[in-house]
Design a protein that fits this description.
With 260 residues, the chain is an alpha+beta fold. The chain has one domain: Heat Shock Protein 90 (2-Layer Sandwich). The protein has 9 helices and 7 strands. A 7-stranded mixed beta sheet has the order 5-4-3-6-2-1-7. Helix 2 packs antiparallel against helix 5. It is globular and about 90 Å long. The termini are far apart.
Length: 260
């Protein structure tokens, strides 16, 4: 009986007859982003972002000393059954940052490689050196703004006031999650609209139409106490002590961080 050897796969002709769709849906993407994170960590990560901005604006690098390096900066938090607000005076997000990377899901691989190369070179030349925003990063939670706000609720407003050539400039990114999820157009993006200035350069994030889990947790009288950073991360607690008026709890009424 005759036998025939199979032709090597790499010698077979390649004839394209179509493309297999591999695009993720927005709903799947949001579910995956928020599935394994806690509400507590989402809120504390938004506070982390404000602290990073304060360090950058102050010109100092993050320190665990109990100095008043961040005195004058303030983070106000409102936790209610029907809304969540975090507002700071820590410099704000610029329009360029908003349009290029602040609202992207992940980073471009080439951009990430460049950042890693620059960071490695800086560390080799000077161990304390850093580049851009990274040198000011507290880096305790690392959840990310998008994951946090999608976890908390469905109607989101992100306002920013920053200084552009010494003059205040402001914008708002409104996100109605149910509407955004049904818009299948690409590329994925969010609208940016003009907005009134905040009292000082900084960011205000307000979330309404809260997720069912969020509203239930916010109704609990013990929820605010559970957010005390000292119970979650010692380093976060120490950094927060650098804010003027901080008394080791988000439930304080001091000048640094307040919760109502």
């Amino acid at each position: 009986m005759a036998s025939y050897a199979a032709a090597p796969v790499d010698h077979l002709p390649t004839v394209s007859i179509g493309r297999a769709a591999a695009n993720p849906t927005k709903g799947f993407f949001v579910r995956m982003l928020t599935r394994d994170i806690s509400l507590d960590d989402c809120i504390l990560d938004l506070v982390d972002n404000s602290i990073d901005g304060a360090w950058e604006l102050s010109g100092d690098k993050p320190s665990l000393s109990l100095s008043n390096a961040l005195s004058g900066f303030q983070i106000d938090i409102v936790i209610a059954e029907d809304r969540f607000v975090v507002q700071d005076n820590c410099g704000g997000i610029t329009l360029d940052q908003a349009t290029t990377y602040a609202f992207t899901f992940g980073r471009d691989e080439e951009e990430a490689d460049v950042e890693e190369t620059e960071a490695a070179a800086a560390a080799a030349d000077e161990p304390e050196a850093g580049k851009g925003h990274e040198q000011f990063s507290v880096g305790v939670y690392g959840i990310g703004m998008k994951r946090a706000i999608f976890k908390i609720g469905r109607n989101i407003s992100i306002r920013s006031t920053y200084r552009s050539e010494g003059v205040p400039a402001s914008f708002e990114v409104p996100i109605h999650v149910p509407t955004w999820l049904t818009d299948n157009n690409t590329p994925w993006d969010f609208p940016i609209v003009a907005a009134e200035d905040l009292p000082a350069p900084g960011v205000r994030i307000e979330v309404t139409d809260l997720a069912q889990e969020t509203a239930a947790r916010f109704r609990a009288p013990t929820f605010t106490a559970s957010l005390r950073p000292g119970r979650s991360a010692k380093s976060f607690w120490l950094v927060m002590r650098c804010f003027e008026g901080w008394d080791a709890g988000l439930g304080c009424s001091g000048a640094g961080v307040g919760c109502s």
